[in-house]
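Cross-posted from the bioinformatics board.
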Amino acid sequence: MGEMLILGIETSCDETAAAVVADGKRILSNVVASQVEWHRKFSGVVPEIASRKHVELIGPVIEEALLEANVTLDDIDAIAVTRGPGLVGALLVGLGVAKGLAYATKLPLICVNHIEAHILANFLEHPKLKPPLIALVVSGGHTALVYMKDFGKYEVLGETLDDAAGEAFDKVAKFLGLGYPGGPIVDELAAKGDSEAINFPRAMIKTKNYDFSLSGLKTAVLNYVSQQRDKGKEIDIPDLCASFQAAVIDVQIYKTLRAVREKDVNKVVLAGGVAANKSLRERLKNEMNRQGKELFYPSHSLCTDNAAMIACAGYYRVHRSCLPPAIGGRQTGEFKEERVCPLDANAEPNLSLIDEV
Amino acid sequence: MLVLAFDTSMPFCTVAVGRKGALLGERSIYAPQGHMQKLLPLIDLLLSDIGCDIKDIDAVAVGLGPGSFTGLRIGVSIAKGLAQGLNRPIVGVSSLDALVKPFSSHGGLICAVVDAKRKEVYSRFYRFSNQNIQHLTDHEALSPEKLCDKLNEMNLSIPNKAEGSNEVILVGDALKLYISLFQEKIKGAEFASPDFYYPKASNIMDLAFDRLESGECDNYLTLVPIYARLSIAEEVWEKTIGPRAK
Ligand SMILES: [Zn+2]
């Protein structure tokens, strides 16, 4: 039985992406057109601009993904697309193209949860990885702590009550005039600074739940800067970045480790663009190793938004619902009906992970 | 040659299938906010009504707007997916062109006026000569008052009016909001009935055949909607920061 080839399509935020993945693990192509240049002057993602760019870029990106994989649509067994969560106008472009493609080619369309795909990016990178585990999903759009019991079985333990982690990095970087996107810039500057120089609040570290809040920390940074300026004191940017970053990461690490204890698992995976943060990776890795447990994270290109993870999530979504377990070939009969998106599927900007179980 | 045409630029989701000069079927439903959910089922229903399969389609025609940004992107995205999946040509047609197409025997000036929200209309001016569409202006977003001035100016400056057609015909859903203003301000204005307030897929189809016959088509890789407006963020940038940055 041949490998199952899935074309993945992702347009939930500001990356237009398409990929071809075999059997949910072998990446044949992974094309990402970043729109960061068009959003930079606004210091953040402008939804209307993102939607317009997706329409321009999606055709060439899909074409490129097929060319690079050296396949045509005739070789593809299914199409997977992000249905949510994300920016609604952006999601609609990818979903529209995917639905058009699937209807024209009569291929099954699999709708995928973007957060689940971020978590499953770890399974692309580490094929032997198995649940149960705790996943910390941190990116420009999301902060979530998830208990993954099994494939398709998730419990969202906590989420951000206000800003996503990446958003907070962007806002602080913008305020300090450091540039956009803020995450990698702050991470780099923080490496040269003293994380204990300024004592910023660790929001919600004491609460019993697993939720996060970053708007208070953001305000604390702004207040600190204006106080220093009022006093005529110079601000040490690396120290400020290091202290801010430590305040964000401390809470994330603390709550992740608490979830590991409570759920009694021995694996943690990082996912999302902020998972590329060096300090977060190193500190969490040390903590896990000390307890004889393991931390996994994907390489940089699979941390940030991409379509290989969407194709992978699509594969797991059909795979786990199919009997016998090995699938291949082109017959739609091998797909369980409820796993295939109907023609009237719509984008779900607030899609929650629970809905996918 | 069998063409599938649709338009989602306005609250109506409209779909047609046909051959040159022979419409096989057309379906339109009122579906504001519902284009993503309604368009493909509507296409599927129409195709099965007329006993065709999507694989029988030789070209895909889509209304490019201007109109609702979200509606446009849904239509254009689905059209791109269909064209790529079928490996068939795609033809983008101005939704305002489709709106005035039923008035092709009128000799005088025709003006498409569509509600653009924010107290503006999307508009374009036309004349037909021997049933062929002629564009006198490009698509633009402007206030209804400015439109009146522009239209009066244009109407005076057009020479050789066909007999008996001194009137300007206005077509489109902006008439719902501004018809009394237009009656008062525009000399010799005639107004299309509400049946013609929204573009019909059959008119998109007719215009697509005109282009296909002359060997023209678009590319699904590059086709984009006609927005006729910047995003609000860019408008603000242009007005405030842009001039200083230049
Ligand atoms: Zn993401």
